[in-house]
Design goal:
The chain is α+β, with helices and mostly antiparallel strands. Helix content is about 30%, strand content about 35%. The chain has 4 helices and 8 strands, in the order αββαβαββαβββ. The chain has helices spanning about 5-10, 40-45, 65-80, 115-120; strands spanning about 15-20, 25-30, 50-55, 85-95, 100-110, 125-130, 135-140, 145-155. Strands 1-2-8-7-6-3-5-4 form an 8-stranded antiparallel beta barrel. The longest helix has 18 residues, at about 65-80. It starts with a helix and ends with a strand. The mean pLDDT is about 90.
């Protein structure tokens, strides 16, 4: 796969994390960068940057469920030990895409791009979703750096 293919794949995925009232924020990434809308502006103002990360399928190599769950449990332990604020999250295929898929993970709060990249490299991820008050995008853990995107809320 070329870098463009990876960007397209990540832009054509759904991402989700819980908000404090129990609802889930569901979104996808678009090609055209656009300004954040509420409630995302409120979340970023209150919690800091958002980084979506998983320890599933390092470098996009599919692994058994048990290995992925063990890797995420280790990531959770490492985040707790480092004092990183986080909640559960997941990435998934968009509705109607076949075959469907889902990878459980976490949304981390308040990390710089450098800190987020370090966490992504630690769990051998190709890319992370990273959001601050001014930009949304894909943060590649090796080489490419940050690719700006837009954020489209899903119902």
């Amino acid at each position: 796969m070329t870098m463009t293919d990876w960007i397209d794949l990540y832009r054509n995925s759904a991402y989700s994390f819980p908000c404090r009232d129990g609802r889930w924020h569901r979104f996808t990434l678009s090609e055209q960068p656009i300004a954040l809308t509420k409630p995302f502006t409120d979340i970023v103002a209150f919690r800091g940057t958002l980084t979506l990360i998983t320890a599933w399928n390092p470098m996009s190599e599919e692994r058994p469920l048990s290995a992925n769950e063990c890797a995420n449990a280790q990531l959770r332990n490492d985040l707790e030990a480092a004092g990183v604020e986080f909640e559960q999250a997941y990435g998934a295929s968009l509705p109607g895409v076949s075959p469907g898929w889902r990878e459980d993970g976490f949304v981390l709060f308040g990390l710089s791009q450098e800190q987020a990249t370090e966490w992504g490299q630690r769990v051998q991820q190709r890319s992370l979703v990273w959001i601050d008050a001014d930009q949304v995008g894909l943060l590649f853990c090796e080489g490419t750096g940050f690719v700006a995107c837009g954020l489209l809320e899903l119902s």
